[in-house]
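ASSEMBLY PREDICTION REQUEST
Request ID: AP-0331
Submitted by: J.K., bench scientist
Number of chains: two
Total residues: 1160
Priority: normal
Notes: Please return the full assembly, not individual chains.
Input sequences:
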Amino acid sequence: MLLLCVVLIAASGKGFGLPAKTSNTKVILNGGQKVTFARPDGYFAFHNVPAGTHLIEVSSLGYFFSPVRVDISARNPGHIQAALTENRRVLNELVLEPLKEEQYYEIREPFNVMSLLKSPMGLMVGFMVLMVFVMPKMMENIDPEEIKQAQEQMRNSPVPSFSGLLARANS
Amino acid sequence: MAPPPRRLLLALFGFLTAAVLATLVAAVYEDQVGLADWHQKYIGKVKQAVYHSQKSGRRRVVVLTEENVIASLDLRSGDIFWRHVIEKNDPIDQLSLSLGKYVVTLSSGGSILRAWNLPDGQMIWETNIQTSTASKSLLHVLSSNKVAKDNLVLVSTGRSIYAVSSIDGVISWRKDFTLDDLEIKQVIQSPENDIVSVVGVAGSSKLALYQLNAKSGEIVKDAQESLPGGLCGETVLGSHDVLIALDQTRSAIFVIEFKGLSLSYNKVRVSNFVQDLSGTVKLLPLMSNGIIALQSSCTVYLLKLKGMDGLEVIHSFDRPAAVSDALAITEKDEAFAVVQHVGSQIEFIVKVTSDLSNEVIREKVDIDQHRGSVQKVFLNNYVRTDKSHGFRALIVMEDHSILLVQQGAVVWSREDGLASIVDVMASELPVEKEGVSVANVEHNLFEWLKGHMLKLKGTLMLASADELAAIQSLRLRSSEKNKMTRDHNGFRKLLIILTKAGKVMALHTGDGRIIWSNFLPFLRASKSGEISSALRIYQWQVPHHRVMRENPSILVVGRSGGDSVSPGVLSILDSYSGEELNSQRFDHSVAQIIPLILKDSSEQRLHLIVDSNSLAHLYPRSPDALKSFIHERSNLYFYSVDIQENAIRGYSLQKSCDLNLEDEYCFSTKELWSIVFPSDAERIAISETRKLNEVVHTQAKISADQDVMYKYVSKNLVFVATVSPKAAGEIGSAAPEEASLVAYLIDAVTGRILHRVTHHGAQGPVHAVVSENWVVYHYFNLRAHRFEIAVIEIYDQSRADNKDVMKLILGKHNLSAPITSYSRPDVTVKSQSYFFTHSVKAMAVTQTAKGITSKQLLIGTIGDQVLALDKRFLDPRRSLNPTQQEKEEGIIPLTDSLPIIPQSYVTHSLQVEALRGIVAIPAKLESTTLVFTYGVDLFYTRLAPSRTYDSLTDEFSYALLLITIAALVAALVVTWVWSEKKELRDKWR
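STATUS: Completed
Returned structure:
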């Protein structure tokens, strides 16, 4: 039984500097039983494949291929069914396409002010600045009467401060 | 103060876990490549080399290696232009060039013919050839003198011959010869007309000659002749119409002439013309006009053909190492090279067939002592500027390295022994001596500041392209990682590597350079052709450096023969210098090596070597070691897995051998238990245990609902997987109904099966990894037709009651009860399985110094990449809708398949071709593990499974910190001045 398929790789290999070439695309039958390479036009073939259910995997750096389940009928020769195992999509023709491109590197975020401000340090600095400039303003807005009242209260119920305690102990 | 409301705490916790989950992927940035990792490409031991023709102007050589790699190498530097690693089950036998632009390979016993584009290695076509019998196949590329567009490639297997067009791989004709048992030995192209002569041997004595039309394959003439005395099968062409064949006894030569239709032969005894010949001879494939080469056990004879009557010895080389094939340098003249060992040097001799009495070149070349003897030599010529011929040669050494020799010097060399690693071990570097302070690293403050300013510019994205390059080189040049001393974080180590050739090499983890190498004499093939095999490598002695001033040493164990009953050998090497300290030949075989945790007084590790008769031998052989061993003997148990008999057996050690000789270091073993699997239903596919040096930090696992689960942590846990015999083959060979996989968890001391689970409709290949209290294994699910990874976690139920704090306080707990393997463990098992996209080649788990850091599985995929998968994805407690509490604990919602996140490939955009093994080595820094991956390539990197929480990363910008501090100080001063002024103003008011 001859199995002929095509591997298609999108020629848009941009982004991570990997050459979009089929030269290192391996096609693997049944987890390594047979391995072949894709030709420049993307075609590949496995020879002497018996009837039954088989698995084809494609290994190509930079692309994610779903393994393909291939059923070769024993009763009517030449009848082949294929389906992607990842999403169970049935292939009408044996054309293997990558599900997605793989990006192996983290992308560096370009420097921007917002990300710096959003970081914990930035938030802390922002809060401090807020306190420094806004708090005095708030204090000004408070009615002087109220402040006096509050100070009165403080005096009446003194917070037992550490220095106060010390002073008391000394006396 | 009132405690914060619980809900607030929970929210905070949830936020934290969400933050942690977001960091499941620990990827590298593209500009970080090469900072902590290195990648080395190899090809393996060269078995065939074909040079590009002179005309093409490219100085390249195409090689075929024993690792089944075809590669194009640069002759000037030895760099790889392109390379293809072919699967081991598709062995490439022959390699040839066609039309000067294709590389044609014949593989799988002559059934697959492939053509590769010479400049870039792209496969052009592939042709399948029907082979009937498993016979030796031949590849012959017809050379056309005319300016032809197409060239035929002839492939002969058994009694068929195929002609394949080298442009597109279409079979243009095929000829099956009718003679029974015919085996084609030679395909000869006559230079004048398009006639191809095919010489074959049928049975043991019949010689057949066919002349075919090269264009159509029709038989023009044929002739047959029976030769008395039979043929051994070795034939070689003497000239274009004379065939030389060896007879069955290998002591006589047939000179067969085929002029036109007639076949005439003459039998000549070798001893007639070669004096004092001992033993049998071998024909060397030195195709040269009228010159043939014979090799006896230690001498190579060059014979000149004198018509039909006989041969004459014209030259002989004593103790040659290798003879190259002949190389046509002019129309009529051919050259060949002979390499001899002279003391520590090798002698490279080139002769021309037209003038055999003189040598064109006789050069002595110095060669590294640790390369062994010369195995093969491939000669190539070039035309010098003065139109004379210069010669260079590729020399393959016994340690699998290759050298290019030209003008009496080694131009380049490749350490291709590293393509076939047998075992790997990590060893510490020497401690930094006092007096050499670390301070001199930052020798120049200005330089240091400049470097940091550059880095700051880089992080602020202000750097130009030139500056970025400068930053990159600055990072790579940082000498810190390549120092020859131990570092505080334990990143710098020596990787001690044992190769198939028997060479031990130490690589520095900083950049992968070879620190030392030693080609162990006992592992080298002896004169009698006995093949030794290297087995394992172990830590032998790790002296406590404050107490002893000795270097640590390593133990290498091997076999002095190919089969398992041949006696073993051991060698002890200094791990700092590679010097051999001691070597020993056993009088017993090596079946199993058991490193013990015991040490003798000189801190040598005790090792038990079990031979094929189930006798255990103790090493080192010192009374001191014996004493400490006897003391612990009754507590020692071991097990062996017998794949042949489909059984696992457990043993204990008895007093002494019942052999007659008094050997107190030998102990007999007693079988305690055995599990024999029914071989009609189950076949052992894999057995796996925990790594000996693995550290488990916590025995208990606390879930979010304050429940405690005790891990069943046992060093004696063995995972065994069996598959049904029908499903033992490849995927696609078995139907789901007849396939099943059974996973066992066995206690290796008592042989008790702790857990057994059957996966119906599942089959191998199985890969497994055991760590702490869990097993993860990969197999193929035939029903879903997808790969699956399953996890089993084992918890100790007998300790589950120890949750009550009151009981602990009052001492009413059973924690102090002795834990013994004899008591029946009360375990509970949780398991789950998930789909996984890829086939797996190797599996390992990260290891850290204290075992606190969470684990990652390292999965070597079919694409020769290594994927790091967080263990949290393989948690049997995952469910579709985890409760709030479970989410807080970090349990990921259940999905049917495991995610493959491209950024979590440890090998990023690199491939470790023909990946075979992954080794994780703990660094001293708890968060970090060192990962070494090997196949034909080597790859090393540092991993931090939970990010580097215990140290600042290389990314940390010290300059930014300094600038912040400076800015703060400035602000302080300014505000202080301001406040002073304000105070003054207030006072004046």
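REVIEWER COMMENTS: Helices of chain A lie at 113-118, 120-141, 144-156, 162-170.
SIGN-OFF: pending second reviewer
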